[in-house]
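Notes, Module 5: Reading structure tokens.

Key idea: the token line is not a picture. It is a compressed description, and you learn to read it the same way you learned to read a sequence, by spotting repeated patterns. We will look at two proteins. The first is printed below with its tokens.
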Amino acid sequence: MIRFSAAGRRRSPSTSGTGASLTRSTPLRSNARAAAPLTGAPGGSSHPARAGWSFVKPSVIPGFGLTFGYTILYLSLIVLIPIAGLFLKAATTSLEQIVRIATSPRTIKALEVSFGSSLIAALVNVVFGIVVAWVLVRYKFPGRRILDAIVDLPFALPTAVAGIALSTLYAPKGWIGSLFSDKGALWQWWHAQTWLPFGLDEFSLNFKIAYTPTGIVIALIFIGLPFVVRTVQPVLEEFETELEEAAATLGANRWQTITRVILPRLTPAVLTGFALAFARAVGEYGSVIFIAGNLPNISEIAPVLIVIKLEEFDQAGAAVIAGIMLVIAFVMLLVINLIQAWARRRFGNV
């Protein structure tokens, strides 16, 4: 308990029953401004600004103004200025030339291959990413930590190395590609079957993976899978198993528990992983050029077409294609973010 003497000094606080006390005394301020309440109180001013004080809402980050300035400077130098330069370069091109470049069959096909392959790869990564994350979180087995480390391998692996490895596997003479090629092991097994009905034994099983859009999708799946796994895995680790037990006690079967309890809680994280995998796939270049074959109107992606335009000293054409690609990617990511925000409001901020 703290006592005050008549002389205006604070006596030492004492602790009852222990005998412990503090001997240092502190003089009280006699300043009237110090005694005046800072906030509205009975008998006091409710406007602290009248006393010459200015109050600013405290910030969580010390020196927020400085850090905010650095953030704006970073966005301006690293992101906004290059994008502005891209559109300014495209703006120097005549409208007729822009339309001609944007509507050329080669440009349209390259954009279709890029965005179509990226969308398919991102959807496949969502399925496989949820399964892999579920296995890593819910199951204990030998080698689990090794599998967990392998998931991050595409992050550290150079994209050119990934492309060479994939082309080695899926090329017509590769380990896996040779199984599907003409006269390959799978082809020989297929034509050796005599029980196939409806003349299926005459069907030529010759499926080419590399140098086709299929190879592009496989490469994009390889580099995009970690994004989904690493966004879903922390949510599964924090997921309350009691919710699953409560659903089971209420009569829900396993499928109902997954679709009505687990997946709704995972939706925001899944959408985040999908957006990251899609964005990574749209801009991928190194791992695709080795397995795509870069055949115009067949397996040529938009980033490769942009590089080809630059090699031909057609900077206006490269800027137009890059601008179209940027606008399409921005709109698609904006839609994904809006859906993600809706999912957070609908299913909770998890």
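Here is the second protein, with the sequence above and the tokens below, as before.
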Amino acid sequence: MRHAWFSEVAKWVRDAWCGVSEATVTAGFRKAGLLASAPGQPELDESSGSSDSEEEAPATLPPELAKLFESASEDEDFEGYQE
């Protein structure tokens, strides 16, 4: 059995990441305390029993966090890290 190439693994990760909804990312940021709840939205309670599969209304990310998700090179092949 051959090992997977780094480019294959990167594609798998990219494809999986594309399948994650904005609501899931926002809920994760909110649960981790990186994002405050939107006005009129209740705070998450650790004992509420909410699961990651539940869809929540997306909140707006602060501009400094939203900028981290922008990429000008999404269509380029990953050629590895330069040393």
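Summary for the second protein:
- The chain has a mean pLDDT of 75.
- The CA atoms of residues 27 and 56 lie 7 Å apart.
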